[in-house]
């Protein structure tokens, strides 16, 4: 099992959730910084068009969704408390509560300070595009949206809950953190990055955030996107569960409840991954061998229903175009 590669960008709150987990477990990992929004050419090839950040990689195995990435960190570090599916109902409820208020945290984080930080890597036009892109993504999110006017009160109500909980122990469920702490942390981290002063009204929350921040981000080495792609090309992915075996020119998607194989549409263009009936439908771009990976597994999750692990593999490319 090779060290994880994380495709991320600095101001991504979901990336910070994963980075904090890596810091807590002190794992060694490789950092590939990517754009805040597409186009991301190398990552699009790896993740089949999956648009959200972060994405984790182990050779030719690609992990989408922070729950799946957290599970992978839990396995590698021997910290099962970072896998929400291995936690009890109370922890799972706390994670669900944090996810419920996440977008309210994002809306409450907006400030001149945060804008200045974003403009270090983005033009003003790109920043406007990013805001519009995130609003559109939010419309299809599994967690409920909240109006900008209601967001601050929603966040403050949740902060009051956390302040009471943290009066009993250093972390939400005792002397050490678990997945609920990291699920709660990253939205508030973005508010703090925005320089919002109302957080100071909650000293126990601030001290708890300081404890998580003190974990750092683990043992990090920088890697280029091209090098990450080369590692995927050279690697053999792990075994696929209930794999029916893709044929050249087909995409095989296997969910826990239903395996299926899809032919690549005759007019397939850019990579696209979109939710289907409990599994990902994949379209693979016709492309030159230089961009073809022998086989890539993409693992994602759907948190709006019962957890389902979805695997997608792409058959070898044996010519300048994918066989049809």
Describe the protein:
With 324 residues, the protein is α/β, with parallel strands linked by helices. It is globular and about 50 Å long. A hairpin with a 3-residue loop joins strand 6 (250-255) and strand 7. It has helices at residues 13-25, 41-47, 66-77, 89-109, 112-118, 124-139, 151-165, 179-193, 203-213, 225-234; strands at 4-8, 28-33, 55-58, 61-64, 219-222, 250-255, 259-263, 272-275, 280-283, 297-300, 310-314. It has 2 domains: 4-78 and 221-314, Glutaredoxin (3-Layer(aba) Sandwich), CATH 3.40.30; 86-213, Glutathione S-transferase Yfyf (Class Pi), Chain A, domain 2. The strands form 2 sheets. The protein has a 9-stranded mixed β-sheet with strand order 5-2-1-3-4-10-11-6-7, sandwiched between helices. The protein has 10 helices and 11 strands. The longest helix is centred in the N-terminal third of the chain and has 21 residues, at 89-109. Helix content is 39%, strand content 16%.
């Amino acid at each position: 099992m090779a060290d994880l590669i994380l495709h991320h960008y600095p101001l991504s709150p979901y990336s910070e959730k994963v980075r904090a987990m890596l810091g807590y477990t002190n794992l060694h990992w490789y950092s590939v910084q990517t754009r805040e929004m597409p186009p991301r050419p190398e990552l699009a090839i790896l993740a089949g068009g999956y648009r959200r950040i972060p994405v984790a990689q182990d050779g030719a195995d690609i992990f989408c969704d922070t729950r799946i990435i957290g599970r992978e960190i839990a396995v590698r570090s021997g910290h099962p408390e970072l896998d929400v599916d291995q936690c009890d109902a109370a922890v799972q409820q706390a994670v669900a509560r944090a996810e419920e208020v996440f977008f309210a945290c994002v809306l409450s984080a907006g400030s001149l300070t945060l804008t200045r930080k974003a403009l270090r890597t983005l033009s003003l036009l790109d920043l406007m595009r990013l805001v519009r892109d995130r609003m559109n993504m939010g419309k299809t999110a599994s967690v409920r949206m909240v109006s900008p006017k209601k967001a601050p009160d929603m966040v403050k109500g949740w902060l009051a809950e956390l302040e009471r909980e943290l009066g009993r122990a250093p972390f939400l469920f005792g002397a050490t953190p678990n997945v609920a702490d990291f699920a709660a942390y990253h939205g508030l981290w973005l508010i703090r990055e925005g320089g919002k002063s109302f957080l100071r009204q909650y000293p126990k929350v601030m001290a708890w955030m300081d404890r998580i921040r003190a974990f750092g981000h683990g043992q990090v080495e920088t890697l280029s996107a091209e090098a990450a792609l080369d590692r995927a090309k050279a690697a053999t992915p792990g075994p696929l569960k209930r794999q029916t075996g893709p044929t050249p020119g087909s995409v095989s998607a296997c969910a826990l409840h239903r395996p299926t194989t899809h032919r690549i549409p005759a007019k397939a263009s850019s990579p696209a991954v979109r939710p289907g009936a409990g599994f990902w439908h994949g379209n693979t771009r016709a492309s030159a061998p230089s961009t073809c990976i022998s086989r890539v597994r993409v693992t994602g999750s759907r948190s709006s229903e019962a957890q389902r692990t979805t695997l997608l593999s792409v058959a070898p490319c044996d010519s300048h175009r994918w066989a049809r």
